[in-house]
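Entries read sequence, tokenised fold; example below:

***
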Amino acid sequence: MVSFRTIFILCLAQIILLAFVSFSLQLIAIHRIDDSHDARNLLTSSHKNIDVVASSSSNNNINNQPVIAYVVTLTGCGTNDKRYTRDSAMGLITQGAAVLRHSIHLAHTQSNKYGFQMYAIVHPSAKECSSTMSKLGYKTLIRNTPFDSKDIQKKFLRENIDGASCCGRKEFVKLYAYTLVDHPVAVVLDLDSLVLKPLDDLFDAIILEDYDILGSSIPIHDKKNVKNLPKKVDAFYTKDYNMVNAGGEKYAGVQGGFLMARPNEAVFEEYIDIVLEGDYREGKGWGGRYGYFFGGMQIQGICAYFYGERHPDMGIELDRCRINSMVDSPTFKQDDRNKPGQCRDGRSNCEDCRTTEISDIFSAHLTICQKPWECIYGWDAKSEKLCSRLHSEWFRIRRSFEESREEDDGLRLLPDLGEAFKPDTYFGYCKRPGRGGYLPIKI
């Protein structure tokens, strides 16, 4: 006969075994959740996920709308730019990040159709100057370059991928936007950008099936002459015709300050395969056609190659006067040897983006107009009106951001406009022209 003591020991052992199995299953489940959330960033040691810092703010999703991902990238702390110290570079990152996010908030508030979440994809070399991003409502993802340049097959690209650009191989961290598959759309923007109007029609075109793009108000490049469009849109972009010489209009680069795409890990993988294949030809570019210009080895060239050569049925070029407006001249100079005074984009007639009404602009990219926190005063005659208006919009949104902050947190800054320097443009945040006159956002 089995004793009571033996039965008790067997039961106790069974309970301990069941508890151990349950605990192990929980660990496996947690591990799988973590892996599925961040698997894209653990493929190789060259782009291993180093750190993730989630913002404490909500994802701005009201009533369970689809949530759009907005992505900015940081690739350095200004240590290679003699104009800025590390601390001042951090400050400038803060200015752009705060006002850009608030502009997006205001645009989404106008329609309330889509929620949004801000992401900052940060290269490890920029980690020390990214600390304010989470305080401003960004989810910070620390990501290394998604490939090892030693693995690039062709010698020319392998040895030169860091040349002729602002950021070299580090700029490829922008490709991680394609891995944000929890969102239906990802929008890559530079920190010196502004969103002035809702982009809902663009989101609809990517998310909804059988969307009538030509019948919509989407500002497509050369829309009157467009005949065939993709049945399923995976990306919108603008091109930078300022970077190509006359005759190279067809192979102009995608402007790196704006890219809207459907996240897709297979697309991300294909980009990496293209880089590792290394078919960037000296004096010609990707595939021998795309990217023979400043920044062409990086995002501007490879995206143009991807959507122009590899997958022309996936993306649509937008009107650069209305989306990602840089207030650029539409024509070559009169002394150009090949096409004096003719349109840079190859058309016989083209709009002058310097004269576009600000009410028609959905988003702007303050490159030619320069950075607002430099307190610029005075542009060339043809750019003066629109650049001034765009800077005024930036400072108006800056003031709206300050008004939205708590009164008693010691950070809010609302200067008196009574005796302010050009208050209609600077809203009290520039005491005088030049960087030294700027009143920075406090974090």
Q: What stands out?
A: Confidence is low (pLDDT under 50) at residues 7-12, 15-58. The radius of gyration is 25 Å. The first helix runs from residue 4 to 38. The first strand starts at residue 49 and ends at 53.
